[in-house]
Amino acid sequence: MTGPDLLRVDGLAVQLGRASILDDVGLVIRPGATMGVVGESGCGKSTLLRAILGILPRHARIPRGAILFEGRDILSDQAASARGRIGFVPQDPYLSLNPVFRAGTQLLEVMRRHAPGNRRQHRAKLIELFRAVQLPDPEGALDKYPHEFSGGQRQRLLIAAALSCDPALLVADEPTTALDVTTQREILALLRRLASERGLALLFVTHDFGVLATLCEQVTVLYAGRVVESGLTRAVLDAPEHPYTRMLLACHPDRAADLIGIPGTVPAADAQPSGCRFHPRCPIAHASCATEVPPLLLTEDRSVACPWHHEPLPEMAVV
Amino acid sequence: MSLLRRLLRDPVAALGLVIVIFAVLVAILAPWIAPYPEDAFESHLLQRLREPSVEFPFGTDNLGRDILSRVILGTRNALAVALSVVLASTVIGIPIGLAAGWKDGWLSDILMRLTDVFLAVPQLILALALGQLMAPGLGTAMVALALTYWPFFARTVFAETRRLRGALFVDALAGIGAHPLRILLLHVLPNAAPAILVRATIGMGFTILTAAILGFLGVGAVPPSPDWGLAVAEARQYLPEAWWFPTFPGLAILLLVLAFNLLGDGLRDAADPRLRRSRR
């Protein structure tokens, strides 16, 4: 490996009861880099983020794998506090803040834990951040309750909160899906500007290829809890190699002349198929796909978990 | 504080609040403001069933006692019963709601089915049955009332806990190692506080009414204590001549129950602005 990694997820598996949510997931983010994670609903995107943030459901288990942040294993209790340098922008700004406490109270509590300085410095810093995220009335915002902000304002507030402890990595879980299109665009522009100004690395979960293309240099595609393809966003979007990625991109309304679907559905997490988890839906599946887990193959510009990735797909049915 | 301000902007709710505060003051000062405080237990047979006059503004009862004094002295009883029943109900209902709402599983199922069972028990019938089993009296009535009122608090708190247990701020608290008790009591329960307050206020009026009914039926307060419901019951055989005998205790019940209901409604509207338009 060249250069120090900021975040390194290695062979991570997460189980909920008997269901395997993630299996052997790996990804690497260098300081200042931007990484997107895409996949259908239920593929494990949010679970991956939650494992990194340490907020998995109480009954989740991590049988294998490691998550190294700045070289420390944050899955171990000793290094869990290193997560203070990871900022998080949640998907749903509505119940991310407790409705009964003022915004300032909740944000300052986090800073008391993770940021140097006293309360007055913390207040000043938050107001400055509110200005940076263009929240209206930055001075008054600390004393407002969460419901006094609009959806877009609340998202800005949470971005400011995520930045309040000087993170090295900003993790965002589809932070724009709950917002309308114009607000979406502003929030994305804001995230991009803040990340480049502050030299932040960005880990961005989305199912929107447009967002992916504008925001992320690199992409990791998840299917049913496994990485199927990862590499430079440009390369993957222009010439996807894994059959799943190829079909997923063909589904995108902007890219396909005719709307095409992927037959079948994402398998339930407690009934994952053997071998390649995509084989029951794959048009070019070989017999060995049902028995052998395909390893991630390194090609010139990416890694792809399919030995048959150069085979053409048959003509797909138009939905 | 903004809750109080919004409440006072609603004249009907403000009226309810004024009456409730007045009743509380009367209850506290009862022995000093009642014209004949000793009439709680003494009888004066020579002056029985006198009409309202300057000397006895509400008249006298079948034992010659000043009805005004007994209405004033009865306020304390009514409020004490209502307050203890509502307090006991919250003490039982809130922990059950929190515990059942936090986790799925057999404990949650058992607690909520138990709640449903108690919700299905008719209040008056349970009180009458308990009165037969134990000694009839105010204590028995209060036990019966508390046993049938806690499920409302359990359900309210249960619903709020269910709604919030998956919220991100709860996950974040759990993620940094906060104890579930701390999360529930300091972060989830305050969200249910307005609903609990509304339910408790309406429960006060409801309990006063039911306690009066139990007194009337003879399984609540026992003579000679100055109880409003009991007074109405005793007055029955002197009707229609002694109209003042049941009228003034009855009016006291009406006024206090009405006040608590108005206040409860006003609190609900003030706590939830979305409902404000529902009432003209």
From TrEMBL, chain A:
CDD domains for this protein: ABC_NikE_OppD_transporters (cd03257)
Signal sequence region: none
Swiss-Prot/TrEMBL keywords: ATP-binding, Cell membrane, Membrane, Nucleotide-binding, Transport
Domain ABC transporter: 7-249
Keyword Zinc-finger: no
Cellular localization per UniProt: Cell inner membrane
Record has ATP-binding as a keyword: yes
Primary location recorded for the protein, binned into one broad class: membrane
UniProt cross-references to PROSITE patterns, sorted A to Z: ABC_TRANSPORTER_1, ABC_TRANSPORTER_2
Gene Ontology terms for molecular function: ATP binding
Top-rank lineage group of the source organism: Bacteria
Bilayer topology: Peripheral membrane protein
Family assignment from sequence similarity: Belongs to the ABC transporter superfamily.
Protein name (record): ABC transporter ATP-binding protein
Species of origin: Plastoroseomonas hellenica
From TrEMBL, chain B:
Location of the protein in the cell: Cell membrane
Keyword Cell membrane: yes
Superkingdom field: Bacteria
Principal cellular location given in the protein's record: membrane
UniProt-listed InterPro entries: BP-dependent_transpt_permease, MetI-like, MetI-like_sf, OppC_N
Family matches, as Gene3D superfamilies: MetI-like (1.10.3720.10)
Residue spans crossing the bilayer: 12-34, 78-102, 196-222, 242-264
Membrane association type: Multi-pass membrane protein
Ranges where the ABC transmembrane type-1 domain occurs: 75-264
PROSITE patterns listed in its UniProt record: ABC_TM1 (PS50928)
Keyword Transport: yes
Entry-linked Pfam families: BPD_transp_1, OppC_N
Record's keyword terms, sorted: Cell membrane, Membrane, Peptide transport, Protein transport, Transmembrane, Transmembrane helix, Transport
Entry-linked PANTHER family: D,D-DIPEPTIDE TRANSPORT SYSTEM PERMEASE PROTEIN DDPC-RELATED, OLIGOPEPTIDE TRANSPORT SYSTEM PERMEASE PROTEIN APPC
Family: Belongs to the binding-protein-dependent transport system permease family.
Name of the protein in question: ABC transporter permease
